[in-house]
Amino acid sequence: MTNTHDAPGSYWYGLAADTGRVFTPGPDDMEDCYDGVLVASLGDTGDAIALTGAKRQALEALDQYYRHVCGQPNLLDDTTADLRDAYYWLDAGHAVFARRPDGGWTVTAAAETTPGAVPVTWFQTPGPVPQPYTRRDDPMLPAGSA
After folding, report:
1. What's the pLDDT at 31?
2. Residue 13 pLDDT more than 90?
3. 133-139 contact pairs (CB < 8 A, 24+)
4. Within a 10 A sphere around the Cβ of 21, how many other Cβ atoms?
């Protein structure tokens, strides 16, 4: 019996032939699209990526993704959290997408000038608020002042 997925001219055959090729993801490569922004999860860690360099657009699209696809109350999975707090875990920049032999893709952060780089916003699963954003109860004095 012949596997038609591996036959020349098939969709999967074409993807396998493009292994390692840098490409710009389209709707078929990502999990969903909200307000024109394509989004996808990045494995089982809860991290995700949005195909836009605009953090506000990414925040809104990722929030919808986590509510509709993941079943969470919001992006931070916390009904009491202010969505603006999610900005701490967003990192806008550029990335290069490369095709894997199985038809999926890998994404690597890259300089804007890298051939094939596209603007993206990465979302890392929330943890402790990163520095320098940690809120303090006492005022911070410059070093050496009295």
Report:
1. 94
2. no
3. 133/88
4. 12
| Residues 36, 57: Cα–Cα separation, whole Å | 9
| Whole-angstrom distance, CA of residue 6 vs CA of residue 30 | 22
> What SS3 state is found at 121?
strand
Alpha carbons within 13 A on the beta-carbon side of 7: 7
**Pairwise CA distance, residues 91 & 71, whole Å:** 23
| pLDDT digits 0-9 by tens, 69-88 | 888 888 888 888 777 778 77
What are the tens digits of pLDDT across the range 29-46? 999 999 999 999 988 888
Per-position b or e across 102-136, b if 16+ CB within 10 A of its CB:
ebebebeebeeeeeebbebbbbeebeeeeeeeeee
Is 47 a residue whose pLDDT tops 70?
A: yes
pLDDT the model gives residue 33: 97
Q: Model-level pTM greater than 0.85?
A: no
d(CA 117, CA 22): 9
State the Cα–Cα distance between residues 29 and 51, nearest whole angstrom: 11
Helix ranges, 7-146 (H): 11-17, 55-68
